[in-house]
Amino acid sequence: MRGLTVALVLAMSTFIVSPEAQAHPHGWIDLSVRVITDDQGVVSGLHQTWRMDPFYSLVVFEELQQVENASLEEGLDQLGKEIRDNLATEHYLTEVSINGEPQALGEVSEYTAMERDGRLTFMFILPLATPQPLAGSQLNYQVFDPTYYIEVVHEEEDGQPRDDALILHGEPACELSILPADPDPEVVMQAALLDKDESGEPGLGRYFTETGQVDCR
């Protein structure tokens, strides 16, 4: 189990490369987000679902099946904890702002790892440190690997984000949108020059990330 844990930790803490850059993606994650609010429109967190790419998922499941005296379910439970613990050191690869003000994030205590349609799926609730009212405000979030090692994109259909890639639970009077990345050509070139076994400098991934937007103004 330790070998799998090390491999996963390395993969989960290094992340992304975009096909647009024609660089060398090491994998990707399909993302969907549910913004959690109460009946008064106060946002408390983001319920995130990450679906790992099929090849990476296959490797993980094969390694789990080779662990002696452990079921797949037991292995996934341990794996989920390792993913959570590793992501905690990286602020869960998530940034949230309200009206342009960065929001402090809490600790993840609700999470699960599972096999779904042949894909390793990790689901977790990322709370805000302090819940905030959304009425009259705009919330933005980004989920990305700073070193641009694995691509994180919202769930797509026919090249466009799916309607359920970003949903709002609670307050209905808001406009939801997923804004595409628009990196500078020089940054695209920088990513394209990465060798197949390289990751970018910290901060590169920010230029290639989508932005989820909840506009309640």
UniProtKB/TrEMBL annotation:
Keywords: Signal. It comes from the Bacteria. Residues 1-23 form the signal peptide. InterPro entries: DUF1007. This is DUF1007 family protein. It comes from Vreelandella neptunia. The lineage of its organism: Bacteria, Pseudomonadati, Pseudomonadota, Gammaproteobacteria, Oceanospirillales.
